[in-house]
What we know:
This protein is of the alpha+beta class. It is built from six helices and 15 strands. It has helices at about 35-45, 60-65, 135-140, 145-155, 160-165, 225-235; strands at about 10-15, 20-25, 50, 85-90, 115-125, 130-135, 155-160, 190-195, 195-200, 205-210, 215-220, 245, 255, 260-265, 275-280.
Amino acid sequence: MSTQSSSSLQIHARPTGFGARVSGLDLSQPMPADLRAELNAAFAKHAVLYFPDQPLTIEQLEAFTLQFGEFGVDPFIKPLENHPHVLELRREADEKAVNFGAAWHSDWSFQQEPPAATILISKVTPPVGGDTLFADCCQAFEDLSLTMQQWLSGLKAVHSAVRPYGRSGVFANETESRSMKIVTGVEAEKTFTHPVVRTHPVSGRQALYVSPTYTLGIEGLSEAESEHILAFLFARVTQEKYVYAHKWSQNMVTIWDNRTTLHNAGGGYDGHLRVMHRTTVAGERPVYVA
Ligand code: SIN
């Protein structure tokens, strides 16, 4: 039986309100409905929640994930044996391949229904580097002029996994060995179209929903126009004022909202082992609601 209650929950928001540390919970225990509701409200508000000192087993990580929704589908990375929904993001101390996730993206935005959230727990943290950068795609949108907001809100963008996971993509051409098992192929070359601006189903806030990793272009624009507009949006959303460098400590659990954030795994820890376990929470088809 859970002894947790919403009265023990403490949310310590970062000064911008983007990202918050959460204390007063034991994530290995099930959460009663009122606590889950409060946590979900905090998640919709702050987009990145982190919980230090939560030494979850893999089974407990799975159970924690299922309190937010069904598992998402992770297509191109071999999961842990006997745990089909858990990925191990592992980089050995002597590994030379670029660290996994080292470019701005929103997880699996090339799917028809991309995961709403991703959950990561740090099992081994390097003594230097290894931050995860998060960009606030709501604020980056809201700070645009109304004219630009309105124009972007009518656009759709094409997403695909082809650049990293396609037959001629980054991973297929990699020469350095990697401990993570990545599957590349024709399946990654499918495309899906999503609105350039999506509305969050809980908060109602609107967010830019494009990334340099998975967005190939904007429908209805010429290639040059599309490249320019996307370059402008990528540069905007990754400006320092919208980015938060998340520092890990061992056994920290972090959940982020793929609907309103981009993330980028920082390197800088060559010579040190880094091990994370990761799950995703299924999401809905992205929509724009005025
Ligand atoms: C990712 O999920 O993209 C990787 C994040 C990280 O390892 O910091």
